[in-house]
Amino acid sequence: MTVTLVVFFIATRFSSDYAFPKMIYRETFNGLSARKKRSFVNHHVLITAKILMIALALYPYMRIILGLADFSTSIVAGSELTIGDITMIATSIFVAVYLHELLFLSSDVQWVSVVHHLGAIIVACVMITLNVRWEHEPNTTAYTVLIMTYGFFDVLAGLWPRPVMVIRTVWPKKHHMNMWFCYAALALTVLGTIGETIVAMYLYGINFSAWPLSIQIVTPICHVLFAVAQGFSSKIMWDLGRKHQGQLDQLGQCVRDTELGNSSTQSQNITKECV
User: Fold this and answer.
1) What is the pLDDT of residues 241-275, one digit of tens each?
2) Hey, how many other C-beta atoms are within 10 angstroms of the C-beta on 208?
3) Does residue 275 lie in a domain region?
4) Cβ contact 95:121 at 8 Å
5) Quick one: pLDDT at residue 274?
6) Residue ranges of the alpha helices (H) in 15-69?
7) Would 263 be classed as within a structural domain?
């Protein structure tokens, strides 16, 4: 975990101090406020981390959920690296993603996101604790599959809006493109929430009698927290999509007024806003 957070720090510092202002985004990045710079860097770091996390965890997750392996199985034949090791690495990235956002953005993080992030961190840490003794703890594999399912859908739900925010920052006046990206992220997030509910609740239900009371109680609470956070993200995408749609309508009105030669005060004011 310590190593992962150090990597996050180096990536963040390199991006904000050198890569973005001097190499990649120059004019765009240097024109942002300090708050927006932090958010912009955070989006890039977390996009990269989440893609890496999915790439690492997908194979072990599928092997375990299909009953083809356990945590002591080698990731490839003859290797000392096990599926359990890869799972732990992916989980450490998962925890670091949320810790990094809480610490790096601090007061800029909404309270809904704070509660979600803390809940995700606690659940992931419990999973790590159980996995250390997976051969001795009952139902550890089933619990890990359940948490990895939540983690997979949660990572995807949090991934879609981030490229949209980057694109909006780089091309703020491309309203048509931004509008459809916002709506696409909204649709993917909603579909992900529905998929998460179906799959996770199925896994929760088929093992319900085997779960200890703590998991029986905490799992639905965490599910509600994750769903609310994803709903909050969906609402942001909806509002931004509507905002760009409104700006497109305004631009269309400008064009129509110009074509009709309308010189009214209201038309002139709209035209100024369009320009």
Assistant:
1) 999 999 888 887 777 767 666 544 444 554 444 43
2) 11
3) no
4) yes
5) 44
6) 26-30, 34-65
7) no
